[in-house]
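User: quick one, fold this
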Amino acid sequence: QQLFSLSLTLSPEGDEHRDEVLAILFSYVALVQRAGPQEPVFRELAMLEEINFAHKEDENELDAVADGIAMALHRYSPRDALRGPYALDEWKPEVVKEFLDSLLPENCIVFCTSPLFE
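Assistant:
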């Protein structure tokens, strides 16, 4: 199961130093882990998700809507299938800590694409 995805676009110089960029990224992740779960951050994210849900643009294709709902039904009740992916209703610091603790370099899959690769 994927916890999250991150995409970085590097300049040509950054591309030459991608290992250092990844090291900086994981240093930041370690900083967040040391800080631990932060309820104010959770509350802010919850508000942003509510805004995202309220202002979600209508899907143009009915198939895309149906696919999204079908996938959501694997994780949420039928009542919550539309809102579920956006819902952050309950502050559970132990769950946040569990996910933070799993953010380790050895748990990641890193894909690099570059015009420099042949």
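User: anything notable?
Assistant: The mean pLDDT is 85.
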